User: Fold these one by one.
Assistant:
Number 1:
Amino acid sequence: MSGSTKQEARPTAPGRNVGGLPLQVYVVFGVLGALVVSQQWLVPRLDSPALATWSTIFVAIVVQSIPFLVGGVLLAGVIATLLSEKALRRFVPANPTLGVPVAGLAGVALPGCECASVPVAGSLMRRGVAPAVALTFLLAAPAVNPVVLVSTAVAFPDRPEVVLARFLASLVTAIAVGWLWLRFAGRVPILHRQRGHDHAEGAAQAFLGSVRHDFIHAAGFLVLGAMIAAAINTFVPREIIDSVAGNFFLAVGSMAIFAFVVALCSEADAFVAASLSAFSDTAKLVFMVVGPAMDVKLASMESGQFGGAFALRFVPLVIVVAVLSACGMGWWLL
Amino acid sequence: MVAAVTRATQTLLLAVTGAVLVRMAAGDSYLRYVNSWMRWPLIACGVFLIVLALADLWRDQGSQGDEHDAHVPRAAWLLFAPSLVFFLVAPPALGAHFAERAQNATVPIKDASEVSLPPLPEADPVPLTLDDVLFRAAYDDGATLADRRLELTGFVSRDKSGTWYVTQFGMNCCAADATVMRVAATGVEPPPDDQWVRVVATHVPGTGDGGVDSPEVTVEELELIEAPKNQYR
């Protein structure tokens, strides 16, 4: 107890201490309690169809993503705790130029959703993996794993070429971004969020600490992304989305933007793409290649994890490469 | 300026989020947002978050506090939002408001020659899901629906022109990717929006062909029913 009291003397800790805990937690607890108690009174006053639709979609995205995020931070915790740098070096070639395609193919074997892959990539970087290699893995894992490919095959029945085009375009995107990053962006600062090294802790505590840190770190940004995606879904008139489908450039551009803002799970986006019947196959492919690689939720999480300077360069790079790669594959295969 | 999230508040954040997930999955309310197979992952995840919070309480007893973990982004405050929205707005399953905006469910476009539809079962009226109606109406000019009384279930929605529909959402992953399946109804006065109904109706031949427009049905009987536990398909 005395230790934690000392800690709260730091200037950033707001409020006084009450029994060793900062005042903040009591205030927050009180506000939550008051809101829940007044629920009966508040609910009818918040009853508007648009707000209800927004909150359904918002809660749905968060609820759907959190188990996958927890899975991802657990995997990241396992990497942080169990995988020594030596072991990692054995898997990942020391030369990053070779490491990039290896990381891309490793994504095939590890089904993870995009929310999970951000903490995993952060953890790989902390373990000394070259950023370009970790970023390739970040882009490949949610896009080319078997779960995503199977769901694409289900969404596009009797169209194996769509599955193949999606697989190749996503893999090319991941590897190309990795190599471009290696060549041109080696000096862009990437924040490595250091966590505390409590040497007194056992392995279990270190593991839990890492999981907790990564979860809290990413979850706030996930919620922010879900808020934006739900707002787009609810408030942008459908006619605006539909009216651009006719023109090739508008269609490709709008599909890229649509994928970016609606931030769907890579397991689900093939069904949405298939349902956009007004659009050409290439535009649908753009949607399916951009979505898992970059969206508003991922951009938000990545700027939290790796810093704003990083996100400012990485986000546009990924989008441009993904659109080009999808258009190329669409022209070739579809 | 928003206050930094202290370590104790982080612990509360984990506990509240975990408790809400468990609460949601223990009842039926999670079915308004995600697929039914998500129940156990949600419970496991909620319990895990609670354990994480408890482990932290236990840890604070012994070890010295640490200076690093308090530095989490202020965005972490937002993690309270889903729990609060869940309790305060109690978001319902998607309804008539979204039906007018959502993507239409696609009828898989195949070569008509490759599709062979089995005849409908013998019952009269024959219960049929909306996606089945859409599919059967799209091929063969709806020949398999001809002269049959169909029993359809869904909620009431309207489009801008005032046409009303028997409606249901299909869900792949979560409510964000819901697609709408609907059948335009004529013949009776429509109940209010979002009311669940069971109708006995006949298909208007030729409507919904090719899967482009909604099929139309002429309603003979209409019964108001309770919303099902899982309102998605």
Number 2:
Amino acid sequence: MTENTGSNKIDSFHKKKNKEEMQKQLISFALMIVFTILAFVVVATGMMDKMLVIPVLLVLAIVQVAFQFYYFMHMKHEGHEMASAMIYGGIWAAILAVAGLSTIVWW
Amino acid sequence: MSHDHSLNPETMPHEPEKATLEGKNKFIGFWFFLGGETVLFASLFGTYLALHNSTAGGPAGNELFGLELVFVMTILLLTSSLTSVYAIYHMKNNDFGKMTLWFIITIILGFGFVGCELYEFHHYITEYGFTFRSSAFGSAFYALLGFHGGHVTFGLFWMIALLIRNARRGLNLYNAPKFYIWSLYWHFIDVVWVFIFTVVYLMGKVG
């Protein structure tokens, strides 16, 4: 590791790395916009059957959220094992909560 | 703690948010908090899903919701998520001025979002008489949306406080974790909004 021994400024290696990272984040932003527009268009035009449209919307949402977590919040980087454990633990409890609360009204 | 950790900004490590023990602890602690927030919002979503048909003769979701405004709000919040990514990019390149600028843009977009949401609630209340007390659907709707909007508003004032407090300090290893943690919070708010516009508005429109 040579970061702190350089005479000044961030070394060019990390500058380049940051730039590559930024490009990936821009691509994921573009994809998220596309998925959002897709979701709104599907609903606004009513082009899909009701039984089909809800799973499609949920899949689009989950993909978008994955982009947020892995690219925008850097969860794909190393050193995020604890972070992943926390979020997946939260998601697990979240699924239970939603499943419990939404099925309880059926009986 | 503050000044003994502030390195010369010219020799910033490449992950300044995790260069100190305090920064590492904030990072872990904040992800723990976000795990808890996931469950908080899940219980509100579950409540909404359970009660969204209990309109008590009042207006239902597909009569109320207008997709145009929701689309504008979604784009505002999604774009503000990207601008905070830019801010963190400049933080990692140790450019305090540009980081501040992108955070200010983020805040402006966030206020745009809150403005739209207030307009939306005002519209529902005055045009449809749809309030927190109208029906179980109303309570669940305003509880979920209100909690999210409250998080956005809290985040805006949090960042304003950070920017004012650190305006003359510049970037150092003491405040880099603070900015980084805020960007995690802001992305998380966008994550919640993705599910709100999907589950509440789009699925509400479908029926």
